[in-house]
Amino acid sequence: MTTQTTAPDTPSTPAPGAPSGLVAIPPHIGRALATAGAALTIVSTFLAWTWTTDFPGDLTVYGYPGGLQVLVLIGGVLTTLFGLASYGVKGLRWLAPAGADGALKFAALTTFATAWYTVLSISIELGGLVNLEPGGYIVAVTSLAAFLGALALPFERPEPDPIDPDDTSWEHFKHQASHRWTTVRAAFASGSPRPVAKLPAYVEILIIVAILALGLAVFTYGIGTEYDELFVGFLITAGFGFAALAKAGLISQASELTSRHQNITICGAFVAAALFPFTQTSDQYATLGVYILIFATVALGLNIVVGLAGLLDLGYVAFLGVGAYAAALVSGSPNSPFGVHFPFWAAVLIGAAASLVFGVLIGAPTLRLRGDYLAIVTLGFGEIFRITANNLDGTSGPDLTNGSNGIASIPNLDILGMDFGAQHDVGGFTIGRFANYFFLMLIITAVVVLVFRRSGNSRIGRAWVAIREDETAALAMGINGFRVKLIAFAVGASLAGLAGTVQAHVTYTVTPEQYLFAGAIPPNSAFLLAAVVLGGMGTISGPLIGAALLFLIPNKLQFLGDYQLFAFGVALILLMRFRPEGLIPNRRRQLEFHEEAEAPTVLGKTGA
Q1: 125, 55 in Cβ contact below 8 A?
Q2: What are the transmembrane regions (predicted)?
Q3: Does position 6 have pLDDT exceeding 50, yes or no?
């Protein structure tokens, strides 16, 4: 008996494959509406949106955008430019190497979402729509018009899968919902970007410098947002705006340029990061900067274990703790039972060596396990370290770590006569305590990046990738799996210990409760693993960006209170659903998750 299948009867929708928009507006009118609406949105940002200064950002001024108006202005400019590029305006075609329509839709969504978030926030916080000035009404209408116009742009509708008549009504509903979602994704899709033409080397380097400067400006603006509404608006604008640039093909072309000059890009990125403290008027945000670097450095070390070797380590934060405790014990703290004060270079070597030894001791008997069993053992090690550090208080065990009180009063570093706890004037800029440690941590991060690059491109790095892809096949090809995995575990542990030596001096105190498996405040093992997966396993920039986001966003979302972790979890679920390969994916993993993606012409040794 054969089961007859039929195509769904949807006479109200356009024929499959026929170019049409999501909104029933003629495409030429929709394009004009999107472009004109974005231009009027730009004008509206120069009007007052509310009559009172009770809403943060002072949106009462005519002729001078402030606060969230600036973000809407950026979205409006982006939408207008993509709208003009979609008309083929001379001089703007370079803005959309993959086509302007998909980018225009995301840019219009950026403007609409930020504008309506602002209007709704004003109405809710101030008690109704009556608190809006004409500018607020105008921006709501113009941004909505631009978004509806963008949705009217034509696209190739996907063919629906056939429906089995014997299916239940629930299965029919799921099929229709799946097809609608596929249609929406197709509406926001874009083509493959054209390759970047070969330019003079100095021109390509100048473009890379401009990209890094833009990245520094975006990061500085985000970390310096002064109130909650502005940070949420920044997340909306940055997220959808990045998607618009990606759909336009600009992100792909930027990646192509940076891949041609990898060494220059990496050096330039560190120079841009070193300029960050000079963009601040106080040491407040340098505090966040140094903690982000500590978190990012440890995440990059974990990336060797998880991203390159494919070993799931759920207790990695313990190696950070081992390095911090080892450095604290020999750095002159009055709570240390040894009573010694070694110079920083010696404390760094001791911290890294102690973590390496623990990595070997834990890895040697456990790395013959695979998958979930290895993860459970590493999780146990992380908890054993914390409990042991809690009990070494002179009562439950030897007096080594001062128990739950930890090792306190760790003195500031003094390297080559430079007191890291004092302010210093550099070129007319005042560099505070946390900025001093920021520069030191930047050097250590550079060392970790160098180790990651050299090891990843080496013979042992290729062996790690082989183990990650198929351990059985790697063993059959003669790779000593146990030895290779033990080296990965030891290298990753020593890099975490290296960051721990600086963390001990930055925080003044090292306690067992700083090294949990999971908690609301990073670094902990769960957040470290999330940073690697979120950013992109097997890459250098992925864990660095993932760690920066995972540290900065919870710090800025404290106004959510008890719902902070809930919102954070929802965001992670959505990201894993729609971009499972991470923000900065390894190209091999990107092909695994998206088979329709175009394969790169050159694939690195580690698949990057």
Answers
A1: yes
A2: 32-52, 64-85, 106-124, 136-155, 201-224, 230-250, 262-279, 285-307, 314-332, 344-364, 371-389, 434-452, 486-506, 526-553, 560-578
A3: no
